[in-house]
Design goal:
315 residues; 4-stranded mixed sheet; 13 strands; 3 domains; Arc Repressor Mutant, subunit A; 11 helices
Length: 315
């Protein structure tokens, strides 16, 4: 089947008639009929039968449909990439971030950056790390902000900030009574814990980290984002082990934060395409983002565990 055959086939499947397919594709009805007949002649079997005034796919057409959809999706990807290649990079900046970072760090950094570059358009999007990597490779975003270092030779990962995962608990829970002290990991034993979906790139690390806890935490609720985990804690549904940026966005009236010991470190990355130098506008944004991330981590400094040779700031 040729691309034109696939286009006509899908239009008829979507609309159920030759005339409606022609309207959808902005071509004449005889043109659709001619392409359909040519496709069926090449294949050696009919693709549609007329049943009670409508065209219905034959069993052979239904068998082809899944593979046809794959070809169509690949063609759409080529079109998206071509559209991205036509874009003038100096006049806009496209930023992707994981949900946790998009909600906690991105808005104030973008507001500051937009004041510096008021004439440059900015497009923001949110998605999981795997989605952001795909968008980078398809040239649909210029930078991805994520807590997961990508494993792809065509991408570079720049470290913007480093921190540790923290425990977020409802106010009044016994685990947060000793504010100012790190929480021993073993204290999570048998506690109600909001779990992370296996789709989260940090979920496997967290599961391995919690293996030492005996008896293990009770995970009865699983969520896909740190932000949803935070909201579940705020509702009193249980504890959560999440990134510090999301935790700091929780209401202090209903929750408390404690770092865990031993710590489970995390890193904030800016991921870009390896073959392209960064424009100065993007470099400025990353500096602002890094500074704001460090400022948020500094808010946790009074309760973060420090080594003996690492003095607290201000002392």
């Amino acid at each position: 089947m040729r691309f034109r055959h696939i286009e006509i086939f899908q239009a008829i499947r979507q609309t159920g008639s030759i005339s409606a397919a022609a309207q959808l594709l902005h071509v004449s009805q005889p043109a659709v009929t001619k392409v359909l007949q040519h496709a069926e002649q090449q294949l050696g079997f009919p693709l549609f039968l007329r049943v009670r005034g409508k065209l219905q796919a034959t069993p052979e057409a239904l068998a082809l449909e899944r593979e046809v959809d794959k070809v169509s999706e690949s063609l759409q990807g080529v079109r998206r990439l071509a559209q991205s290649l036509r874009r003038e990079p100096s006049h806009s900046l496209r930023i992707g971030a994981t949900p946790a970072l998009a909600l906690s760090l991105l808005p104030p950094a973008i507001h500051e950056w937009a004041g510096l570059y008021p004439d440059i358009a900015c497009e923001l999007s949110s998605g999981h790390s795997r989605e952001l990597v795909q968008k980078l490779l398809m040239r649909e975003v210029d930078v991805a902000l994520t807590l997961q270092q990508p494993d792809h030779p065509g991408l570079n990962a720049q470290t913007l900030a480093s921190g540790v995962l923290v425990a977020l608990a409802p106010k009044g829970h016994w685990l947060v009574e000793e504010i100012g002290q790190p929480l021993p990991l073993m204290d999570l034993a048998d506690s109600p814990l909001i779990g992370l979906s296996s789709a989260d790139p940090l979920a496997a690390r967290l599961d391995s980290y919690l293996e030492a806890v005996d008896p293990p935490p009770k995970v009865r609720i699983t969520v896909q984002t740190y932000s949803l985990a935070r909201m579940m804690v705020e509702s009193g549904a249980g504890l959560a082990v999440i990134d510090p940026f999301t935790a700091l966005g929780a209401s202090p009236a209903t929750t408390s934060i404690r770092p865990l010991t031993p710590p489970l470190p995390i890193t904030l990355y800016a991921v870009t395409r390896a073959t392209e130098p960064l424009p100065h506008t993007l470099n400025d944004l990353l500096r602002m983002f890094s500074r704001r991330a460090q400022e948020q981590l500094d808010r946790l400094l009074p309760i973060l565990p420090l080594t003996d040779d690492e003095p607290r700031r201000g002392k």
